[in-house]
TrEMBL record:
Name used for this protein in its record: Major facilitator superfamily (MFS) profile domain-containing protein
Domain Major facilitator superfamily (MFS) profile: 8-457
Compositional bias (Basic residues): 498-508
Gene source species: Auxenochlorella protothecoides (Green microalga)
Domain (Thioredoxin): residue spans on this chain: 720-846
PANTHER family: IP12678P, SOLUTE CARRIER FAMILY 2, FACILITATED GLUCOSE TRANSPORTER
Region (Disordered): 485-509
Length: 861
């Protein structure tokens, strides 16, 4: 690397501070009282109103317009830049950007009214459009192939650095009377540096060659490479440039020639995912998000600074990863982290921030949300944003590159306008669900990575079109052969490295086919799918080895025996579909299945207790526990868990289980010691996976299956198919496990008629699904008993709180109590409260005791 190359790369990336600075500064400016008083006085009453819910505090159309107007200006600037960069070179566009940025900053700082500051905002976007169009192109053209990723990711670094600087300045000027003017005016500094420094930067050799200035291109290339023998590289550039059509023909080629469909689709989809995977919350509105959580102005700005630091750290991490590892692998694992972070954010917002006026989160809860946002930003900036930016610089061929970048900028301006304008409005409408929406977009990005993106690491930019010839989908769009040189000309030194990697990839494909054939041929993935599906979807198969299977096959994939991406997709689909089938069976067939001899009652009891303790989260936690993993979705269906809630926990649990177990095995399998002793390691994994099951069998052997296990003294616990009763109603609170008798529903009639004192029938000891179903059976028995017991139906119109609690818990709306409760009369208003389910225990002398059970309704699903 030469000093000229380093200097040019630095200044070529510098203007991206403007875009990052502008993104980060808006949140702080919006929270400035002096800014709102001068330009948006009506918003002051909204942000301080005690009747506005926290999610809707900043949902204001006119304020959102200030942020959104930046991007139409970017679009116009990019279109203008497509002409200037083609006619006058890349440096002309960079200088236009610097001049327009300085003018726009002056207009905004001196703006007397709202119209003037909006005009300055549009002008700032117009200047940034020149930079957004040409900066990555310039860097891709001056950088050698092995450093191209680092150079292009330098634009991302300065973008993240711009966000960080903006957050620091927001905090530093918070107490100044004219703080917004300082914040908006300091953007002139990087623009002035580039304007002066561009006088010493070399023009792009590709641009000079396209303008017919070959000698100038040769001198520029020698300055950049630091050596004289650059003729071969310039010949490659000339060959590519010689194929470049006129601007009109370039637009026509992009829209009509099939060979340009692959790079166009890859780049435009990548830009779309960049905008909708959740980055706006941390980039544009971080101070506003923390203000919504109830933090003070200074604390919210400090938290935004922390997020800005995470952006810089993420970019540095991406620069280290991108040219050391394959692009697709970096993007794949980044998607997994982003999905987990966004889902966690949704859970935390749901738990910590109620949608009521005046609701706030505690400091500890706010720190938890800050941590998830930091983790997301590290993954986003280090993987997705870095990789997609590299794609934008290297995938478009030279002959259509300026046109493709206009299309990129058009899409960027469109999504930027829409997302920045609607984010706060969507947060008001969707609440915490907005984070689940972002997680879904990250899931689509994961599929995009697996199926659409070819590997481009260390491939010269002039030869990138060759990778499409070997892609399973894009090869259908490529011509049969290149008329002049072919996709990879024989004897071409520039293609040697790629040719070696292609040979290695083909040998690996042969190894994959042989490895798969050695297991079960082409049906291997189908068999793996069937095993995981059976363990989670069939209640009768809890013995199948789920965790060890995922870990072992992940390690096998590290030895090139299986495809790790297809393996993860197979397990994810099997886990989600299996739990869905089990949930449906529990919901509609639970009463019949639980009586089957193929289902062990103790496994259901174990899962029932686990589900009662953890609620809906048991679906996620149970993924990592044998036995419970099989029965948790079944119990969820029997307890009438809402379908939407189950789907949420189902997908989250499947993603975590698959990525941690299979991904962990893949990482473990890459250890040299493991690779060299693979057979012994697999044998050890099998043995370790058997040990928990053997321990369970040995510890439970000889235990009576009908022994009643109580949660504590005085708790009457309804079991599957039996009813726990105490023979002495007056001692119900102190009735010991030894005194508890178990009767089935069929024995209830004889039990009631044979006892002098009334039975205690408690249907609310445990709220599990099987107990609900059993209680329905007991109601039918009670109806046959006539006067021996009385059925009390709750009037839901007069007791709406009781009705809501029963619907949340999935409990029946029938309470059976002894006839003696009529003396004194039973008052239903005292039976249930907001957080508890209360069971009235009576005797012949009236109420004897009241047993209270935790309902756990709040946050259960």
């Amino acid at each position: 690397m030469t000093w000229t190359l380093l200097y040019s790369g630095f200044l070529g990336s510098l203007l991206h501070i403007i875009g990052g600075y502008d993104s980060g500064i808006t949140g702080g400016v919006f929270s400035s009282t002096t800014f709102l008083e001068k330009f948006y006085p009506e918003l002051l009453t909204t942000t301080t109103s005690p009747t506005v819910t926290p999610y809707c505090k900043y949902a204001n159309d006119t304020l959102n317009l200030y942020t959104a107007l930046f991007y139409p200006g970017v679009l116009v600037g990019a279109i203008a830049s497509s002409f200037t960069s083609r006619w006058y070179g890349r440096l002309s566009s960079l200088r236009c950007c610097a001049v327009l940025t300085i003018v726009a900053a002056v207009v905004q700082v001196t703006a007397p009214n709202r119209a003037a500051i909006l005009a300055g905002r549009v002008l700032l976007g117009f200047g940034d459009g020149f930079n957004e169009h040409v900066s990555a192109i310039y860097l891709a053209e001056i950088a050698p192939a092995q450093l191209r990723g680092k150079f292009i990711s330098g634009t991302i670094f300065f973008g993240g650095f711009g966000v960080f600087v903006a957050q620091v300045i927001n905090y530093g000027v918070r107490d100044l009377g004219n703080n917004w003017q300082w914040a908006l005016g300091l953007v002139m500094v990087p623009a002035g540096i580039l304007l002066a420094g561009s006088l010493f930067m070399p023009e792009s050799p590709s641009a000079l060659n396209s303008l017919g200035r070959r000698e100038d291109a040769l001198r520029a290339l020698r300055r950049l490479r630091g050596r004289e023998d650059v003729g071969a590289e310039l010949d490659d550039i000339s060959w590519a440039a010689g194929r470049a059509p006129t601007l009109r023909a370039a637009w026509h080629a992009v829209l009509t020639q099939r060979r340009y469909v692959p790079p166009l689709v890859i780049v435009l989809l990548g830009v779309t995912f960049n905008w909708w995977s959740g980055n706006s919350a941390a980039t544009f509105y971080a101070p506003n998000v923390f203000t919504i959580l109830g933090f003070g102005h200074s604390t919210a700005l400090i938290n935004a600074v922390v997020i800005g630091c995470s952006k810089i750290a993420g970019v540095l991490m991406g620069m280290l990863l991108l040219d050391r590892f394959k692009r697709r692998s970096v993007l794949f694992w980044g998607c997994g982290v982003m999905i987990a972070a966004q889902v966690t954010s949704a859970i935390l917002f749901n738990q910590f921030l109620a949608d009521v006026p005046g609701a706030v989160a505690t400091n500890a809860q706010g720190i938890g949300i800050l941590v998830t946002m930091v983790v997301y930003e590290l993954a986003f900036m280090g993987t997705q944003n870095t990789t997609v930016t590299v794609f934008m610089g290297e995938f478009p061929p030279l002959e259509i590159r300026p046109v493709v970048w206009v299309l990129i900028t058009l899409l960027t301006a469109t999504w930027g306008t829409v997302s920045t304008y609607t984010f706060l409005l969507m947060l008001c409408a969707m609440k915490w669900g907005l984070y689940l929406f972002s997680a879904g977009v990250a899931g689509l990005l994961l599929l995009y990575t697996i199926f659409l993106v070819p590997e481009t690491s260390h491939v010269p930019v002039e030869r990138l079109q060759a990778v499409f010839y070997t892609h399973w989908l894009w090869k259908r769009f490529m011509p049969v052969g290149d008329e002049e040189r072919g996709p990879l000309a024989p004897g071409d030194p520039a293609a040697d490295g790629h040719r070696r990697r292609e040979g290695q990839r083909r040998r690996q494909q042969v190894g994959v086919r042989r490895g798969v054939a050695s297991i079960h041929g082409r049906a291997s993935y189908t068999i793996l799918f069937a095993i995981v599906f059976a363990e989670t979807g069939l209640v009768i198969a809890p013995f199948l080895p789920g965790d060890s299977l995922l870990f072992a096959t992940g390690a096998l994939a590290a030895s090139d025996k299986l495809n790790i991406y297809l393996l993860l997709l197979t397990y994810m689909a099997a886990a989600v579909l299996g739990d869905l089938v089990s949930y449906t069976a529990g919901k509609y067939l639970g009463a019949h299945v639980q009586q089957s001899r193929l289902v062990k009652k103790e496994h259901l009891v174990k899962t029932q207790h686990f589900f009662a303790k953890h609620g809906g989260r048991a679906v996620v936690l149970g993924r990592f526990l044998p036995i419970v993993r099989t029965f948790a979705p079944f119990v969820a269906g029997m307890s009438a868990m809402p379908g939407s809630a189950f789907a949420y926990f189902n997908v989250l649990g499947a993603a975590l289980w698959t990525c941690l177990c299979c991904g962990g095995g893949y990482v473990f399998g890459n250890v040299p010691l493991v690779r060299n002793n693979f057979s012994l390691v697999m044998l050890a994994i099998v043995v370790l996976s058997i040990l928990p099951a053997a321990y369970e069998v040995l510890t439970t052997r000889g235990v009576r299956q009908r022994k009643l296990r109580l949660a504590g003294p005085g708790t009457l616990t309804g079991q599957f198919g039996v009813l726990a009763i105490c023979p002495d109603a007056e001692r119900a609170q102190t009735c010991t496990p030894e005194e508890i008798q178990e009767v089935s529903a069929r024995e209830l009639e004889d039990a009631v008629q044979s006892r002098a004192k009334p039975l205690i029938i408690d249907f609310y000891a445990t709220w599990c699904g099987p107990c609900v179903l059993q209680s329905k059976e007991l109601v039918k028995v009670a109806e046959r008993l006539g006067d021996s017991v009385r059925i009390l139906k709750i009037d839901t119109d007069e007791n709406p709180d009781i009705s809501n609690q029963l619907q949340i818990m999935g409990l029946p709306t029938v309470i059976i109590v002894p006839t003696d409760t009529s003396k004194p009369a039973l008052r239903t208003e005292g039976l249930l409260s907001a957080d508890k389910i209360v069971s009235l225990v009576t005797s012949e002398n009236g109420p004897a005791a009241v047993t209270t059970f935790d309902a756990g309704a709040k946050g259960l699903y």
